[in-house]
Specification:
With 207 residues, the chain is an alpha+beta fold. It is 27% helix and 27% strand. The chain is flat.
Length: 207
């Protein structure tokens, strides 16, 4: 009788195993978000706040509209630590990144960040993210949350199979760094309160 194909007992019991069945990674601001009543969503293996409802708001749209308007008029802060982060070093690091992104990263100045598209071998978009140049031979690449592992695997494959002669080394630092996005017309004012460096060169709307 059905089922004709055997089903593992773990498949039936999995929902009762909690994190042992489906590990959940938490961002640095998770406890604060939880105390503020955030509604969470699973993103990859991360548990990430989706919106913060306030008293009197009837649905998610009310909360999201309030947060969007506040960001457009003043400033908004979002914990994006779940985004993948890959440390890229070596004298050929810039040349390597030129190979795997559609745009040129070797012309990026130290201390600057550039958005980039990463393609698969068949020309389709694999992922998008930013590349920050920390030093002459040092970059930090960000990826989407879900594709962090895939991008790391792709970069390793390209290094070993396509350009083994390049002096470049990569390591995932997703768990080592917290990451917060600051956006809005007052984002620069917030940033200036947090860092010692001059923020005059920062973007006006999104930092």
């Amino acid at each position: 009788r059905p089922p004709y194909t055997p089903v593992a007992f773990a498949a039936f019991a999995g929902r009762n195993m909690g994190k042992a069945f489906q590990p959940i990674r938490l961002t640095p601001s998770h406890d604060w978000s939880k105390s503020e009543g955030a509604i969470f969503v699973e993103a990859g293996l991360w548990l990430r706040p989706q919106w913060y409802p306030k008293k009197g708001e009837k649905n998610w749209r009310d909360s999201v509209d309030r947060e969007v308007i506040a960001t457009r008029r003043s400033v908004g802060v979002s914990d994006v630590s779940s985004l993948g982060k890959i440390d890229v070093k070596g004298k050929d690091a810039a040349a390597f990144l030129d190979h795997i992104y559609t745009n040129t990263m070797s012309t990026l100045k130290v201390g600057k960040v550039r958005y980039g598209l990463m393609l698969r071998e068949d020309g389709h978009v694999m992922d998008d993210g930013t590349v920050a140049r920390m030093g002459e031979n040092h970059f930090v690449v960000t990826t989407t949350t879900v594709n962090a592992g895939l991008v790391m695997q792709h970069m390793d494959f390209c290094k070993q199979a396509h350009w083994p002669e390049l002096d470049v080394h990569m390591v995932s630092v997703t768990d080592q760094y917290a990451q917060f996005a600051i956006a809005g017309p007052n984002s620069r004012k917030v940033l200036e309160k947090l860092v010692d460096n001059d923020a005059d060169g920062a973007a006006d709307i999104c930092t």
